[in-house]
Amino acid sequence: GGVVPRSGAAEEEEQVWRRGNRKVINGYIGEARAALAAAAARDGDGGDDSAAAAALGLVGAVLEMSPRMEAALELRARALLALRRYRDVAEMLRDYIPSCAKSCAGDDTATSSSSTSCSSGSGDLACASRAGLLSPGRELSVSGAGASRFLCCLDVSEIKRRVVAGLSRSSEAETQWRYLVLGQACFHLGLMEDAVVLLQTGRRLATAAFRRESVCWSEDSFSPSNSTANVPAASRRAPSKYSQASGMPPASEADSVSQLLAHVKLLLRRRAAAVAALDAGLPAEAVRHFNKVLDARRGGVLPHSFATACLVGRAAAFRASGRPADAIADCNRALALDPAFIPALRARADLLESVGAIPDSLRDLDHLKLLYDAALRDGKLPGPSWRPQGGVRQREIAGAHRELVARVQQLRARVAAGDGCNVDYYALLGVPRGCARSEVVRAHLLLTLKLKPDRSASFAERLELVDEHRDLDAVRDQARMSALFLYRMLQKGYSHIMSAVLDEEAAARQRKKKPQRQRPCNNKKKKNWQPCRRAPSQSVSTSRCRSRSRKRSHHRHRRRRG
């Protein structure tokens, strides 16, 4: 069971092998850096992918010989970022994702609620800072408060991550690339709050490193141009996709990070304003703010996972304002982007049940039940652990599954009783019962122009699809199918309501055509009877006769005198 001592020859041979490997590693690292520099120079000309792929292959060979080499890890992360493989970057540095690190710390109630509110809340930027979510190898900015926070949040897994990160970390300047690279990847994956925390931390560490280095500079070497070179690999990195999409000129990594951070904060502020308006009972204002987020104006990049959550939020605002057709359309768009998004399935099932489309609601509930079964079987929600599910937590799945089974049984009983085909088309089109024909025509025209199947897939062109399992063609096909289903339902509702309106108009015309019978005047039979008043024509004729008789008697009287 003891350790076998090695001879001097074996140790010398191992040292020679290490020196040879070191030379090979240094050569590979230099070639990988040159390839990434070429990718940065040819970014936008179609040659960056091949150069970045070559750099990734070289770095992979280095990591086989030295798995913990910091320079190789940095080059691998930057190569994956240049290849737009953001999921691989997140899997590589998952321990540094704030929400993932906090949710993986344990099953504590306060911990889970804090991480959920930060990942799927109303976009409050102070939420992440209040939770204190930073990477395991972070440096505490305030020493006194940091010690008290560490003692209050003592956790075995947290201590383990800190020790491992402390052993693998050589200096603060060497690990700041993790925050910057992972922050950009989190943005493209839709983890906006995590991106804000990581980018701010990386920028703070870069500024601190620049200040320490500037102390040793001479007065001539200290110039404004050096302030943008505080990130060691800034000149070797390709410009970010955000700077390309927004039409900005190629800038250093510090400038691109600052622009990206401002863009993320703007999106979070608008989403927070929309959620606050919805909570305050102002659905129209909430719809306006969600429209600003989803329009992706000014060339800003909008990740599809973040857009999916915003579509579900706008659907809730549409439902609160009495527009179920628009709400169902937003749920269709969200499910086209992510078919396993639990909040979107819940919202569409509730909307279809509210308008009386019970069979369609049952189809969504069956899909939701399959997702719950998979979560209970696997012990985790569908998708990666760092991926948000709109406030859904694993510990809530068991209770939600029981409620879902009971609800499905009730709806199936209603369908068996013949109550499954009574769709409330008035509520679907948003018109009151007994409305005029013009109101029905106007509502139908607006909905058909807005929800036409040919235009249903145009929203996906404004988004950034980073999931390799959902390409643009699959999203378009799913969006067209769901939009066609909703369009047919609207056409059927329009025909049903118009037939009812035409029947009411025909009944009204029939009532007007019926003659009104006059009751005979028979007042003489009563005790206190009064003579009936004559018609105006009769009174005029009698007065004329009387005047003529008076004239005749007057002429006769004059003749007699004469």
TrEMBL record:
GO terms for cellular component: endoplasmic reticulum. Residues 424-495 form the J domain. Residues 220-230 have a biased composition (Polar residues). Residues 509-528, 545-562 have a biased composition (Basic residues). CDD domains: DnaJ. Residues 104-123, 219-251, 508-562 are annotated as: Disordered. SUPFAM superfamilies: Chaperone J-domain, TPR-like. Coiled coil: none annotated. InterPro entries: DnaJ_domain (IPR001623), J_dom_sf (IPR036869), TPR-like_helical_dom_sf (IPR011990), TPR_rpt (IPR019734). PANTHER family: OS01G0273500 PROTEIN, TETRATRICOPEPTIDE REPEAT (TPR)-LIKE SUPERFAMILY PROTEIN. This is J domain-containing protein. It comes from Aegilops tauschii subsp. strangulata.
